[in-house]
Write a structure and sequence with these properties.
There is one protein chain. By secondary structure, the protein is α+β, with helices and mostly antiparallel strands. About 25% of the residues lie in helices and about 35% in strands. It has 3 helices and 9 strands, in the order ααβββββββββα. Strands 1, 3, 4, 5, 6, 8 and 9 form a 7-stranded antiparallel sheet that branches. A two-stranded antiparallel sheet has the order 2-7. The longest helix is centred in the C-terminal third of the chain and has 16 residues. The radius of gyration is 15 Å and the shape is globular. The relative contact order is 0.21.
């Protein structure tokens, strides 16, 4: 099988551009990255997606979190030559069929100033987002006492 053509990524890119997640925006990239990394499992070779994402969040130069559902999140690390900190308004992710694989697929970011940039995926880690949210709720409740 060969990767999906770029035109096939546009519906995904448009969906991702319209999405925003519910994480607090006052956290620094470092704090947010550390929080996601604390709940991320060991690297996995791939994950399954069915053509749409719920949301995404950039975590610094070479990492982002992609949500395939409101509670299924994956931490993606891209090759170091990419810089995801630039202002971009669209992202797309290549796949082979219903599978996104490290070392085979890429994140493509579309910036109004630099145009499209292809960033090969170096690592995929599943985030235990449900546990992360439960722990955040418990911490908030403990702080209210």
């Amino acid at each position: 099988m060969k990767p999906a053509p770029l035109a096939a990524l546009w519906p995904v890119a448009l969906l991702l551009a319209a999405c925003a997640n519910g994480m607090p925006q006052h956290q620094s990239d470092q704090q947010l990255r550390a929080r996601y990394q604390a709940y991320a499992g060991a690297p996995i070779p791939q994950f399954t997606w069915f053509g749409h994402f719920y949301s995404w969040e950039e975590l610094g130069r070479d990492e982002l979190v992609v949500f395939t559902t409101p509670s299924d999140a994956y931490l993606l690390k891209v090759w170091p030559q990419c810089d995801l900190r630039f202002d971009f308004n669209l992202i797309g992710i290549s796949s082979t069929g219903p599978t996104v694989s490290s070392h085979l697929d890429s994140v493509t970011v579309h910036s109004p100033t630099t145009g499209p940039m292809r960033c090969p995926i170096d690592e995929i880690r599943r985030v235990d987002y449900q546990r992360m949210r439960a722990d955040l709720r418990a911490q908030a409740q403990a702080g209210q006492r």
